[in-house]
Specification:
By secondary structure, the protein is α/β, with parallel strands linked by helices. The chain folds into three domains: 2-105, Helix Hairpins, CATH 1.10.287.70; 117-242, Rossmann fold, CATH 3.40.50.720; 269-330, Regulator of K+ conductance, C-terminal domain (Alpha-Beta Plaits, 2-Layer Sandwich). 48% of the residues lie in helices and 15% in strands. It has eleven helices and ten strands. Helix 7 (193-210) links the parallel strand 4 (182-185) and strand 5 (216-219). One of its GO terms (cellular component) is plasma membrane. It is a multi-pass membrane protein.
């Protein structure tokens, strides 16, 4: 029964651990044998184990040497068995390391960290987002899930890649979805708009089912799918088509203002921030509050009141309880 239990535990261990345990047991065995054969030459069992390790590793310091014929036979057997075992262990260790790096680049390794961002879908938007996010915070942990990408080099993109279908619970669990802090779902460029939105919504359902409270940012291409994405559990909806149409409109009819380049340059150094109006600002004018906040590097753009956006309102507009100020602040504010 004890032997069966040992076999049950031993053969379930990772191969590197099994090899290490085997090497240690062999070294202990030979160390004990040489101690009992030549107690004068090897006063303690530890001295014997030391000699076994040095001999098995083919180092041969020469501080302990067997003198009897029996001791030398034990040494020969150790070199033939233990030496090969240690060599095999080192080779296997190197092979396992290379295999792990290969599996990591091909998205086969589960993520074990916490407080990470999960990006779903590999495309140009995702690539630029990763570069800018890591430039802002090099310690940021990012997990990428994609089923079209076969491999990704960690040297070029220091992120954790998982290959698979993000609508599969198993893949989301490999990304440690329960310990993530945010999920960003981008539209699949390999599908038409309707199929891409349906897939994004299905992915949202899967993510929400595995983590009921995590913020989910979803890119939706068709405006008639926005309500479905919200019902699926999306926290924030990105509407790239609406955004690009607005920019194109401004480029066509206000071609001297360069709105597209202005927004790109603006968002490189600034970020939007919504702040609730403090009680001390109640009934004060928009100009007064904007001036007060500008000293603190808050650039006030407008007011969000009763779900209505009032951008660049008249300076005399009084602020009310419940108003939310739309501001711009530096990234490292």
């Amino acid at each position: 029964m004890n032997i069966e239990l040992f076999k049950h535990v031993y053969f379930r261990l990772p191969i590197l651990v099994r090899l290490l345990v085997t090497v240690l047991l062999v070294m202990i065995l030979f160390g004990a044998i040489i101690h009992f054969i030549e107690p004068n030459q090897f006063p303690t069992i530890f001295d014997g184990i030391w000699w076994a390790v040095v001999t098995g590793a083919t180092v041969g310091y020469g501080d302990y040497v067997p003198l009897s014929t029996a001791g030398r036979i034990v040494g020969i057997i150790l070199i033939l068995t233990g030496g090969g075992l240690i060599t095999f262990y080192i080779t296997q260790f190197a092979a396992t390391t290379v295999q792990h790096e290969n599996d990591l680049s091909h998205g086969k390794v589960a993520y074990k960290g916490t407080k990470h961002f999960i990006l779903i879908g590999w495309n140009e938007k995702t690539r630029i987002l990763i570069q800018r996010a890591l430039k802002l915070d090099p310690k940021l942990e990012i997990v990428l899930i994609d089923q079209t990408l076969t491999s990704i080099s960690y040297q070029h993109f220091p992120i954790h890649f998982i290959h698979g279908d993000p609508t599969d619970d198993y893949i989301l669990q490999k990304a440690n979805i329960r310990d993530a802090i945010r999920v960003i779902i981008t539209a699949d460029n390999h599908r038409n708009e309707k199929q891409a939105d349906n897939y994004s919504i299905l992915t949202t359902v899967a993510v929400r089912g595995n983590h009921p409270d995590i913020p989910i940012l979803v890119e939706i291409l068709s405006s008639n799918q926005i309500d479905n994405a919200i019902r699926a559990g999306a926290s924030t909806i990105l509407r790239p088509n609406d955004f690009m149409s607005t920019l194109l409109f401004h480029e066509i009819f206000h071609n001297k203002s360069n709105p597209f380049e202005s927004i790109i340059q603006l968002l490189k150094t600034q970020k939007f921030k919504q702040i609730h109006v403090l009680e001390e600002y109640y009934h004060k004018s928009f100009l007064e509050v904007s001036t007060a906040l500008h000293v603190k590097q808050y650039l006030v753009l407008g007011i969000l009141r009763d779900n209505e956006w009032h951008m660049n309102p008249p300076p005399s507009t009084p602020l009310q309880e419940g108003d939310i100020l739309i501001t711009l602040v530096p990234w490292r504010h």
